[in-house]
Amino acid sequence: MNSAELIDKLASKTGLSKNKVGQVLKTFTATVTKQVQKGGDVRLVGFGTFKRITRQARKGRNPQTGASVKIPARKAPKFIAGRNFKEAVSGRKSA
User: Using 50, 70 and 90 to split pLDDT, how confident is the model at 91?
Assistant: First the structure.
């Protein structure tokens, strides 16, 4: 499902116009992005948590030459699925 399909689905379910839903979706993603960019978490209970992690520097290997290369530390986004979302996707209830 792409953004346009998501907007169509949400508009039909909520009765809001596609334009309004598009604005809400754009604002939601911008807000989540800014918060995670600043190092904060966005927790949607039952759905999941958006957060920023720091990946440690490490050594890697160039697959073409086999030479060892240094991979620098970096920050990366991470999504951790909530219990309700996991259960819905897997079709099983957790104990």
Answer: confident
Element containing residue 71 per DSSP (H, E): strand 68-71
Q: Is 26 among the domain residues? A: yes
Residue numbers of the domain that contains 18:
1-38
Asked whether residue 23 is domain-assigned, the answer is yes
This prediction's pTM: 0.79
46, amino acid identity: G
Tell whether 48 is covered by a domain: no
Q: How far lies 33's CA from each of 30, 42, 71, 74, 83, in Å?
A: 5, 9, 25, 17, 23
The SS3 of residue 64 is coil
**pLDDT, position 29:** 97
* CA neighbor of 30 nearest in space, from 10, 47, 50: 50
